[in-house]
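Example (one chain per record):
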Amino acid sequence: MKHQHFQKYQAWYETIIVSVYILLNNTINATSMIMEESRNSDTLPFLIWQPFLFEYSSAIGSVLLLPAIGWLLNKRPILSENFKRTFIIYLFASIVFSLCHITIMVWLRKLVYWTQNLTYDFGDLLFELVYEYRKDLWSFIFFVMAILSYRFIFSRLQGEANAINQGEDKPVTNNIDRLLVKKLGKEFIIKVEDIEWFESSGNYVNLHIQGRIYPMRTTMNNLIQQIQNEGFCRIHRCYGINLDAVTSITPLSSGDSEIKLNNGKTLTLSRRYKEEFKLKIDNV
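Predicted structure:
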């Protein structure tokens, strides 16, 4: 049950974990600055709140930009076939990350300074941009590696699914009815018919089976081609369902419909896939 709860609120937990880490790290940096200055003099050359403002404004900027890095990793995996193009994209992304981070950071500082009737001076623009980019580039690399490491570890914990006939010397064929799940060094088989619904997630499709989520490295088009003869149908650009799991269909004024599954989950049936769905449901 705890594992299922974590899977359901995974994005929230990820955000909280990273935010807490950044907050603690920047708090240590701010207090270290104060302690170092106190060691050399009884009078601080700055107001006591300023180091915290500098560190926390940077932390807030980083946290706000983390979802964008996650989105980039989904859209353009690091291990793409065209490595040169991928490298250029990520280099450009690091520059955009730095500019956005600096913008958020500076405006937060200006706002706080304004409330204290003070003026914040960012300094020489070109010099400071280069100075900040050096640090932001390292932060960008760290966040990319941290997210990739987390996803790898979590995929091992929750189990990653592959077609049962997928191996080093066996190509994936159509009409699969079994999946091999690798989890914590163990392997076990699940039936395709047990899948209740599935959703696209970057380079993966998340399979929802009895409250658990199993990522499968494939695309929606490839998966639906392999399991459509097992009673599955695509109902949306991002969703597909097991027709045996449907309990009710409710038309909407927009032309779409709502499909309710026997596990209580409600999904949208897009107008684009409505005719295909009707044909499939009539043949069930």
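Caption: The radius of gyration is 25 Å.
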